[in-house]
Structures are given as structure tokens and as C-alpha cells.
Automatic annotation (TrEMBL):
Taxonomic classification: Eukaryota, Viridiplantae, Streptophyta, Embryophyta, Tracheophyta
Keywords: Glycoprotein, Signal, Storage protein
Function: May function as somatic storage protein during early seedling development.
InterPro entries: Acid_phosphat_B-like, Acid_phosphatase_pln, APS1/VSP, HAD-like_sf, HAD_sf
Protein name listed in UniProt: Stem 28 kDa glycoprotein
Recorded family membership: Belongs to the APS1/VSP family.
Gene Ontology MF: a single term: nutrient reservoir activity
Signal peptide: 1-19
Length: 258
């Protein structure tokens, strides 16, 4: 038994790496799928099922990540699996885009938070979604304008531009944060877009994200644009009306927006 424990310790130590792609250094450990004897369960197994429910939109209207899942979600987001899942989505989006005959009015709608920019440095300091949402603290983070780019999304963004597709950023961030969002996007390497739309809270106060984004997409189409693609991390980014010819959902088990 001592030999086995030593072997496991060595294996885990060898697996450790650091998540520097997100702008901060964090220790990453492999996700444990199963352990124990006779079908004993550990939190990581139920957390994996919970995350699947979230991504499939079976688990809805949740407020926080389950407390027992903090470690699992942290390791997922910081590890290879999150990057791999995001890469799969971005790859399929690009393969689809390559089949299209692009016109001057074709646009691709991108969400911002957890789609083009990552707030992982903030969530890593706030329990990876376990803590209840704190609007004051989150807005202070956004106002710093330091959110790094999500690597796979940025690759897709650049590939779409190379195909001649115009980019529109449609974010739930309020008008008051438009300037810092523009600065942050440019700092993170997003330097070209057709439009960036932020939320006028005087119009959409009390409205769901689905209502807000559906209305703004309708306005784009009324201006003569054709939405050929639409990508976001929340289901509310891609549900509703005027969603575009095809939608793509990036993984995000950190929070839920209706």
C-alpha cells in the first residue's frame, strides 16, 4: 500500500502544470473521474454530471456553483479540458464558416464575457462561481480593463476576419462600461469589428438577456445585416429570436444568465 501511495503521489506531481494562458499562475491538478471501491462516489463524479447538465441546459436558473464543486470547476477551467472543449466549438464554427459565400453584409455575433474575454482572474479569487454574484466587486474588476483573451475564441475571430466576415460584439455590459470594454478588447488583441453593442439599462431594465439580445439582433437585421453565425458562453446568448443561421455554445460552468 505504501508503494502504491508513493506511486500516486509521484504521478500527480508529474501532472501538475500552471495555467498561465489566462494571465495568472495557478496550480492545476488532473480531474478525477472515479475512485474507491465498490462504486463509492466522490464529489468530482457528481460535479461532472452537474456540469454536463449545465452545458446541456437541463440545469437552469442556478445561482452558484455547488460548494463541493469548487475544486472540480477550478481544475476544469484551468486545465486542458476547458481548452479542448472550447477548441472543438471554435473548430466547428470555422469549418461551417468556410462553406459560406460571404457577402459585404454578413456578420458574426460574438458575446464578450467568457466568449472573447475571460474573467477567470476574477473568478479564481471568488471561488470559481461558488460565491454569490457581487455586482460591485465584479464591476470593479471589469473597470480595470485587464481581462485576457480566450485563446480559442481569438483564433476563431481572426480566422473569420480572414474570410471577410464582419464581427459584431454584443455584450450584456452596460453603456457605462463601453469605453473600458473597447480598450480591453484592443489590449487583448481584438482590433477590428463592425459594431460593439452594450446594454442601455434605461431601456432594458428588468428585461432578460434573451430579450435584450434578441431585440438588438433584430435591429442589426433591420439595418440590412445578415447574421450568419452567433457564438456565446450562455444559452441566453443564442436563444430567442433573430439568432442567426447557426449558433455555437462555448462551455461556461461559472455562472448562469437568463
Amino acid at each position: 500500500m505504501k508503494v502504491f501511495v508513493l506511486f500516486v503521489a509521484i504521478a500527480v506531481a508529474a501532472w501538475q502544470c500552471h495555467g498561465s494562458d489566462h494571465g495568472h499562475e495557478y496550480q492545476i491538478f488532473p480531474l478525477r473521474m472515479k475512485t474507491g471501491h465498490g462504486g463509492h462516489y466522490i464529489p468530482e463524479v457528481s460535479c461532472q454530471s452537474w456540469r454536463l447538465g449545465v452545458e446541456a441546459h437541463n440545469v437552469i436558473d442556478w445561482k452558484t456553483v455547488p460548494l463541493d464543486c469548487e475544486g472540480y470547476i477550478g481544475n476544469y477551467i484551468l486545465g486542458d479540458q476547458y481548452r479542448s472543449d472550447s477548441k472543438t466549438v471554435a473548430r466547428e464554427a470555422y469549418y461551417y464558416a468556410k462553406t459560406l459565400n460571404i457577402t459585404a453584409k454578413d456578420i458574426w455575433v460574438f458575446d464578450v464575457d467568457e466568449t472573447t474575454l475571460s474573467n477567470l482572474p476574477y473568478y479564481a479569487d471568488h471561488g470559481f462561481g461558488v460565491e454569490p454574484y457581487n455586482a460591485t466587486a465584479f464591476n470593479e474588476w471589469v473597470d480595470l480593463g485587464e481581462a485576457p483573451a480566450l485563446p480559442e475564441s481569438q483564433k476563431l475571430y481572426k480566422k473569420l476576419l480572414s474570410l471577410g466576415i464582419k464581427i459584431v460584439f454584443l455584450t450584456g455590459r452596460p453603456l457605462e462600461q463601453k469605453a473600458v470594454t473597447v480598450t480591453n478588447l484592443k489590449l487583448a488583441g481584438y482590433n477590428k469589428w463592425e459594431k460593439i453593442i452594450t446594454k442601455d439599462t434605461s431601456i432594458y431594465h428588468g428585461k432578460t438577456a434573451v430579450t435584450y439580445k434578441s431585440t438588438e439582433r433584430k435591429k442589426l437585421e433591420e439595418q440590412g445585416y445578415k447574421i450568419i453565425g452567433n457564438i456565446g458562453d450562455q444559452w441566453s446568448d443564442i436563444l430567442g429570436t433573430n439568432t442567426g443561421d447557426r449558433t455555437f455554445k462555448l462551455p461556461d460552468p461559472l455562472y448562469y444568465i437568463s
